Amino acid sequence: MLNEREIESCYLGQFIPVHYHHNMLMDQNRMHGFKSAINYAVKPGAKVLELGGGTGVLSWFAAAKADKVYCVEFNPDMVKEARKMLTMNPNGHKVEVVHADAFEYLPPEPVDVVICEMIHVGMLREKQVEVMESFKRRYLARFGGPLPVFLPEAVIMAVQPLQQEYDFEGFYAPIVQFQETTVIYPGTIELAQPTVYSVLDFSQPTDTLIAWEGKFPIEKAGTLNAMRFVTKNILAVVEEESSTIDWLNHYMTLPLAQPIAARPGDVLQVSFQYRAGGSIPSLQAAIRADLVVETVAQPALRTAEFA
């Protein structure tokens, strides 16, 4: 019988199906970015902990240099999968796959690097922020400082107003969409530039509440009917080169329930708040978008809200 946390985990992304992890293995941008960042962050002889290990691939990247890697996974199916795959790869013996809850597990010794790739656009669904905050408190209580290096080191999140096409062979369906960042979609029109709404530095205490209010000068005429959420993960900061190793999540586009006409010169005011690790509908329910300045002088205020 599943307890309350396990039930929530099934719905909010902790028990990600095995085939989804296989898709992540085939994502070259993700794999290359993490391999590069781990190769930089993990020094020879290091001790490494991965929280939410999945197939174990990131722990395996770390094992190329590390003396010991603790790979924590809560899903019993993935524990079996990771153990099987690691036996097929050199250095796999350096990785200890631990069947445990990342909210509760601490390694038996201090570690140099902590990998936590529980990442969803907007820090939604998966419990990365909450898991890392819990880990930091428990780690300091047991081992004292300093804290290990975290990978990712930080995340930058932005939002952008769009006109989005929702015609699917004549069937109108305003749905949540995830889009490749390197593809041009003819049905997507950017009405204004994206604006950063949150920066999380995982080396510092991080609040799970994300709240923002800001304005966008509208640059293109169109029908405002969606908001795009952008998430850039700073996997590692390469100080000696003054650069970073990044991974950009797919764009997430959320439809507005009541589209409104927008013109160049209008000013769009947007506000929302949600909990990191919360559901996508929780963000949808919180968003409010208002055109507060219009090119044609009139008292009416055009408003769009999520259902």
List the defining traits of the structure above.
Hnrnp arginine n-methyltransferase1; 7 helices; alpha+beta; 2 domains; Rossmann fold; 7-stranded antiparallel beta sheet
Sketch the major β-sheet: 7 strands, antiparallel
**Oligomeric composition of the shown chains:** single chain
| Radius of gyration over C-alpha positions, nearest whole angstrom | 21 Å
According to CATH, the fold-level topology of the largest domain is Hnrnp arginine n-methyltransferase1
Q: Count up the domains.
A: 2
Task: Characterize the structure shown.
The protein has helices at 4-12, 18-25, 28-41, 57-63, 76-86, 128-143, 280-286; strands at 47-51, 68-73, 95-99, 113-115, 149-151, 154-164, 167-168, 171-172, 177-179, 188-190, 195-201, 209-217, 222-238, 243-248, 251-262, 267-275, 288-293, 302-305. With 307 residues, it is α+β, with helices and mostly antiparallel strands. It has 2 domains: 4-117, Rossmann fold (3-Layer(aba) Sandwich), CATH 3.40.50; 154-305, Hnrnp arginine n-methyltransferase1 (Distorted Sandwich), CATH 2.70.160.11. Strands 6, 9, 10, 11, 13, 14 and 15 form a 7-stranded antiparallel sheet that branches. Strands 3-2-1-4-5 form a 5-stranded parallel sheet, covered by helices on one side. It has a 4-stranded antiparallel sheet with strand order 12-16-17-18. Strand 1 (47-51), helix 4 and strand 2 (68-73) form a beta-alpha-beta unit. Pfam families: Methyltransf_25.
